[in-house]
């Protein structure tokens, strides 16, 4: 038997996070079983884990070995989560570990005893059954800890520059740019010589990014931030942006400043605005207010939702594999992640831990060690 | 010498619409000169013609043969029009006429004496020099009057269904659907068997479209219009919309209802919303307020500006020609246009006429006859 973390939302609005005993899986020919050594708690795990419950509202129940964390989900959001009512759902987007059992295929057998990185859900568990061809072998010299966060942030950041190139842009804008993801994107752009305009909300975030070599950092708290942003856009030529915030005026302001930057070089009159396509992708939902686009952006613009998984499906298996391999090759440099706490599966259910990692604050990141710290 | 209509905005904010004498053009080998017999005043001509001046504020000047129309452009919009200051600009997006002189190439000579349709600006004139391969020969039995509005509305409406197919959708939504363009789109969709959800603002507009065979007409003035819209979207499966209004909440409301219609059939829980891509294209600017997108639309969505010319450039010459030929083939049926007034070039400068056509009201359309009515 192996332990799995589960999140269960009842139709009554009661949320129960618990550990269940699952039978040890036997791999099919092309499958392996991985002992999960390290798996992070990302902001993108919190929706499934906490079901929009207030992270500070959890109560402990159960026993020390089989703890349970209980909370009430706000009544107004319970109906919107109907599709998950009364289902005990596994959690955890990514992780790394050691292959302990392997199916009969040569590809599966070749992985036996190897350290591998994985993605695809159900990682908050002592063991994860997975197809052999979905495992990435961790380079010699790297620990499971180094590879645990190999997918969500690294592949998202790398896919942003990949999207930029595929859609014909040469530089990009990123908001909430001091996040772990933002710092990683800054390292990619510095390494690859890509112009990056970092947008942050506070002076200390700007300092952090500048200390890491960022050339263009705009603070939305500055009174003249629109003018600063337009200057940075004119200097870099950035015409695509990735926005983590989603709601409010910022996506529209970025388009407005892009159009103004382009029109500085415009020749002649065009009643439809510039012909250069300007694109903002919203990949996060930090602000749930409506997104507002002012109408001074011309006609050549787009705003759209953006998610990693559909993007990788569009570019196909071969290009996806190329991006994954680059992450493996630069695990401890470009794609390095840091953690503030390491906990067991039981430790992840401690109400005090939930209150801390549930804030999804930059610089505060938990790593689960399902088989002991 | 031939007469041309010109619009001149001075840096002082003074706008002068006048008629100028231009020397008769001599065609190069691959060019022809067309006597313009009929050219419409479209809403899309008004920006260039009136430079955002109040249509009811024009004063007559000049002589009866060379009239001038004068107005003041509002001070706050003059700086935004700097790129056109002090330039005497020709006007008129589309028209039809007779080839009166032709260059030496066989293609140009073959057009001599033929009735042709044209697009590309500078149509408010007695003669238009144009490349022979840009002329569409008008079918026998059609008048210049039938072909004058062959491009802007017909090609836009046809390009909407073409965009729908190319981007993988099977039905579409149109707002301001009782417009001349909207009625034309309704005829295309009825003929081609395409599901169309028409959105209007008033009951009489709904009646007009229903009298023309429209099956789905939603009135935004109805209290339950979101519920009605969701039903119509579920019935038609429409996941793309073309919106003429641009600003305000309607583009976002369409996305919200599309997501709700899709989720009626959803199986299982997805924290990112449906995987079906929902798209709204804004092709007009009837409302200059910011566009607002609520955040209950999942992640698979996009909003973007849309213009006919860049679309035709993207699809290329051959497909563009196919669309143009379909318009020619159905000039007096699917793509029929009506006019409420016919005027000379001088008549188009009459302040009373400007006050009428300047409103761009549905059902009120002027046709210019540059060589006499």
From TrEMBL, chains A, B:
Keywords: NADP, Oxidoreductase. Gene3D superfamilies: Medium-chain alcohol dehydrogenases, catalytic domain, NAD(P)-binding Rossmann-like Domain. The keyword Oxidoreductase applies. One of its GO terms (molecular function) is NADPH binding. Residues 13-368 form the Enoyl reductase (ER) domain. This is NADH oxidase. It comes from Comamonas serinivorans.
């Amino acid at each position: 038997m192996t332990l799995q973390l589960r999140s269960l939302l009842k139709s009554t609005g009661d949320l129960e996070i618990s550990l269940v005993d699952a039978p040890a899986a036997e791999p099919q020919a092309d499958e392996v079983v991985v002992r999960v050594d390290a798996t992070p708690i990302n902001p993108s795990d919190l929706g499934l884990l906490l079901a929009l419950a207030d992270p500070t509202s959890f109560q402990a129940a159960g026993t020390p070995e089989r703890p349970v964390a209980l909370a009430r989900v706000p009544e107004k959001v319970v109906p919107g989560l109907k599709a998950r009512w009364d289902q005990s759902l596994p959690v955890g987007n990514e992780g790394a570990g050691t292959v302990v059992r392997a199916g009969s295929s040569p590809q599966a057998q070749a992985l036996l005893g190897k350290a591998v990185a994985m993605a695809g859900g159900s990682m908050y568990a002592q063991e994860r059954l997975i197809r052999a061809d979905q495992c990435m072998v961790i380079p010699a010299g790297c620990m499971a800890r180094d590879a645990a966060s190999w997918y969500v942030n690294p592949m998202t950041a790398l896919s942003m520059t990949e999207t930029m190139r595929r859609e014909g842009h040469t530089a990009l804008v990123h908001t909430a740019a001091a996040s772990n993801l933002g710092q990683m994107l800054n390292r990619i752009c510095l390494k690859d010589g890509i112009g990056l305009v970092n947008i942050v909300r506070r002076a200390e975030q700007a300092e952090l990014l500048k200390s890491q070599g960022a050339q263009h950092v705009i603070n939305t708290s500055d009174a003249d931030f629109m003018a600063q942003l337009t200057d940075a856009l004119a200097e870099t030529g950035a015409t695509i942006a990735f926005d983590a915030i989603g709601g409010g005026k910022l996506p529209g302001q970025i388009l407005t400043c892009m159009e103004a930057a382009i029109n500085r070089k415009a020749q002649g009159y065009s009643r439809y605005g510039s012909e250069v396509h300007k694109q903002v992708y919203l990949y996060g939902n930090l602000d749930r207010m409506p997104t507002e686009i002012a109408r001074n952006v011309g006609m050549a613009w787009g705003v759209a939702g953006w998610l990693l998984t559909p993007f990788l499906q569009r570019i196909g298996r071969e290009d996806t594999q190329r991006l994954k391999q680059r992450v493996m090759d630069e695990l401890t440099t470009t794609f390095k992640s840091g953690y503030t706490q390491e906990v067991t599966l039981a430790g992840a259910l401690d109400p005090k831990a939930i209150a801390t990692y549930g804030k999804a604050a930059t610089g505060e990141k938990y790593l689960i060690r399902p088989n002991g710290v």
